[in-house]
Amino acid sequence: MPAPKKVYVQRASAIEPKSSVRSTFDTLTSPENRAVVTSIAAFGAAVAFLSSPLGEAFLLPG
User: Fold this and answer.
1) 3-state secondary structure of 20
2) Is position 59 within any domain?
3) How many domains does the structure of the chain reveal?
4) pLDDT per residue as tens digits for the range 7-44
């Protein structure tokens, strides 16, 4: 009787790709992009403030 053959199975080491939301979040929170994200947030806050009724206080009378 022949000896039983051994079959070695190697686990697939495929890495799952990140979702687009996770990839975007990682990019935005990266320390390399801190200055860009901060300046975009400050610009957005300034636009929101100046377009609000409080922003009319900065208008010159005329």
Assistant:
1) helix
2) no
3) 1
4) 877 776 667 788 999 999 999 899 999 999 999 999 99
